[in-house]
């Protein structure tokens, strides 16, 4: 009787531990769209708006997002002294090609782990500009699938021409090696051939929220806010 009671108790405890562990899994929103669609701009506004407010009614659960741009992480790695991937990343970025996922996924995983090590409550991530092709998706699935839950894809949709104009305008001051006409033509091709099919794949799973990104920053954000408030 005592043994049965102990067994039931330990099963109960382990199921609670399992549920808590699952509940604490980081939650991810993939943010996708063409080059210059406004992904980074909107992510910054999300972080600014939702911040890290302590909600005491919610057991002090932190409510906010950490923005991780895969492109920024790659640019950081490119300029890190001693990086063995610096040159490769540099040439892929200039050519608008997608860097092998082994490099990108390690940077993303490390950034997520470091964020959560500093503050366990920072468990909501906006992953901006990833996954961009089937190789990226395969890498995510093999490394991260059981470590994080992808809630949905936030897709900033606008025409190629709007994307190109915004990047060329940004190129006047960004210092980015890929905000020029030649690189942009390649980036748009890569987006259409490799990234659109990934968005389509998530669409068929009912996991894409599309926002018309051709409007002003504030108009776009009004839709983003409505969506995030609704999705919780
Ligand atoms: N809704 C908007 N209307 C006009 N300009 C915008 C809008 N959103 C962003 N921009 C401007 O367009 C440029 C590209 O924006 P942003 O960097 O956010 O795009 P992105 O999708 O993150 O680009 P990339 O994928 O190339 O890094 C920036 O100069 C930004 O200020
Ligand atoms: O997952 C990724 C993200 C980015 N890249 C490369 O970086 C550039 C710039 O990315 P932005 O999102 O526009 O900052 C992109 O064109 C790719 O070359 C990548 O390979 N994988």
Kindly describe this structure.
This protein is α/β, with parallel strands linked by helices. It has one domain: Rossmann fold (3-Layer(aba) Sandwich), CATH 3.40.50. It is built from 9 helices and 7 strands. The protein has helices spanning 2-23, 39-50, 70-78, 86-94, 101-118, 134-144, 160-174, 181-204, 217-231, and strands at 27-33, 53-55, 61-63, 66-69, 124-128, 149-157, 208-212. The strands form 2 sheets. It has a 5-stranded parallel beta sheet, with helices on both faces. The chain has a two-stranded antiparallel sheet with strand order 2-3. The protein is globular, with a radius of gyration of 20 Å. The model is unreliable at 53-62 (pLDDT under 50). The structure holds adenosine-5'-triphosphate and the ligand O=c1ccn([C@@H]2O[C@H](COP(=O)(O)O)[C@@H](O)[C@H]2O)c(=O)[nH]1. Adenosine-5'-triphosphate binds at residues 33, 35-41, 71, 129, 166-167, 169-170, 216-217, 220. Pfam families: ADK (PF00406). It is found in: Nucleus; Cytoplasm. Residues 69-99 are annotated as: NMPbind.
């Amino acid at each position: 009787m005592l043994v049965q009671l102990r067994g039931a108790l330990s099963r109960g405890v382990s199921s609670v531990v399992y549920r808590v562990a699952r509940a604490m899994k980081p939650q991810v929103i993939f943010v996708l769209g063409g080059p210059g669609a406004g992904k980074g701009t909107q992510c910054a506004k999300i972080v600014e708006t939702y911040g890290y407010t302590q909600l005491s009614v919610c057991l002090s659960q932190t409510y906010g997002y950490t923005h991780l741009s895969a492109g920024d992480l790659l640019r950081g790695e490119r300029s890190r002294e001693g990086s063995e991937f610096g040159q490769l990343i540099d040439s892929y970025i200039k050519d608008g090609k997608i860097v092998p996922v082994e490099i990108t996924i390690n940077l993303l995983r490390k950034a997520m782990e470091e964020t959560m090590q500093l503050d366990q409550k920072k468990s909501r991530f906006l992953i901006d500009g990833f996954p961009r092709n089937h190789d990226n998706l395969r890498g995510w699935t093999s490394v991260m699938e059981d470590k994080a839950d992808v809630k949905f894809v936030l897709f900033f949709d606008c025409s190629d021409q709007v994307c190109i104009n915004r990047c060329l305008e940004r190129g006047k001051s960004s210092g980015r090696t890929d905000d020029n006409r030649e690189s942009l033509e390649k980036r748009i091709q890569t987006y259409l051939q490799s990234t659109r099919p990934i968005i389509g794949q998530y669409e068929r799973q009912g996991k894409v929220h599309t926002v018309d990104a051709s409007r002003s920053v504030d108009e776009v954000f009004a839709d983003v806010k409505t969506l995030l408030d609704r999705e919780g």
